[in-house]
Design brief:
CATH topology: Aldehyde Oxidoreductase, domain 3
Low-confidence stretches: none
Radius of gyration: 17 Å
Number of domains: 1
Strand order of the largest sheet: 3-6-1-7
Shape: elongated
CATH architecture: Alpha-Beta Complex
Mean pLDDT: 94
Largest sheet: 4 strands, antiparallel
Oligomer: single chain
CATH class: Alpha Beta
Number of helices: 2
Order of helices and strands: EEHEEEEHE
């Protein structure tokens, strides 16, 4: 599970994932790019990463381009209004539109498509497959 080591403040406000990301494939040949802005939980990101590793059978290289470092709080069930903000429940990563989440290297294109399709099924946002030649397949 992805959890930050230390934070300056352990509670944050919600915020928004506005804007369009301009990042491109930097580390790998293939990538998974998000089409819509939103939030990805740490356990969703971990499930997608595990799906990729399982599909690749531990070959190739996987690069994770985002990290869930924003705490989300939640109050316990059946607690009345007021009395302050709740405790930290989980961590999320804010993702802008067109941001790249995963990059893969040292594998063939069919393996990459299959692995990133499995990862995309685990994530709550719509995404697409990227290739190094800037072609969207």
């Amino acid at each position: 599970m992805f959890i930050p080591n230390n934070l300056k403040f352990n509670k944050q406000q919600k915020g928004r994932a506005r804007g369009v990301s301009q990042n491109t494939l930097s580390f790998g040949i293939f990538g998974l790019q998000v089409n819509t802005p939103g939030r990805i939980k740490a356990n969703q990101l971990e499930a997608a990463r595990k799906a990729i590793r399982q599909a690749l059978k531990r070959t190739g290289k996987v690069y994770l381009r985002i990290f869930p470092d924003i705490p989300v709080t939640k109050k316990p069930l059946e607690v009345r209004m007021g009395k302050g903000k709740g405790n930290v429940d989980h961590y999320i990563a804010r993702v802008k539109k067109n941001q790249i989440i995963f990059e893969l290297d040292n594998i063939d294109i069919n393996q990459a498509k299959y692995a990133l399709k499995l990862a995309a099924d685990k994530l709550p946002l719509r995404s697409k497959f990227l290739y190094k030649n800037e072609q969207i397949i």
